[in-house]
Amino acid sequence: MENIKNLLESYIPLAKSTAKMFGPNCEVVIHDLTNPQASVMFTVNHHVTGRKIGQSFDHLVKTVLQSEDFKEDYLAGYTFKTEDNRTIRSSTSLIRDSKKKVIGAFCINFDVEALNQMQQFMDTFLSTKVEVQENETTSNDDLENVEGIVDQLIQQIIQNSVHPVMKRHEKIELIRFMDEKGIFLMKGSVEKVASMLGISKVTVYSYLDEIKHKSNEGETK
């Protein structure tokens, strides 16, 4: 059986050399997606976004997999803001095992705040606009690839958490985690989660409503 840990660790030299080449503003993170709830297994220059070993992924589903430009297992040049309002330019590439199953992600995060001061010169580099070639459409293969990746994440998340005497509040927390990570943005995900948890689709929606209600209560306090 292939050793996933060893395979992912084989990317560490690449992570270190990438960070060394681009300097302290470049953070590289390796995720173990067979452990989605604590996927960060290696990071260098973690001060860029504050990523720490044992944390979970943030942008994989909501930004990367949901992007029309996610093709061939990678998305390059997307941006997001940190909590202190710094702009981070990122690239994410998926890592597959010998059976083509997605087991990890290799992420590069670059703090471009210093470059923002050179806006005129760096317009091309910093542009978040994506040039779409004519007649370029998202193929069925691309959609199936994304759906397959999210299916794997759902299976792994539930496999890591479900036990025979799982209580209601534990199921709610599990669904909260998946909701925060964007799992339910994918069509059909509610049905898949309901089936794997052995509950109805209506129950999943009721848990999501309860989570939203509690979140709104917390914001108004």
From TrEMBL:
This protein's superkingdom? Bacteria
User: Which Pfam families does the record match to this protein?
Assistant: HTH_22, PAS_6
| InterPro entries named among the record's database cross-references | DauR-like, DauR-like_HTH, YheO
Could you identify this protein by its name?
Answer: Transcriptional regulator DauR
Which organism was this protein described from?
Answer: Bacillus safensis
Query: Which gene name does the record give?
Result: dauR
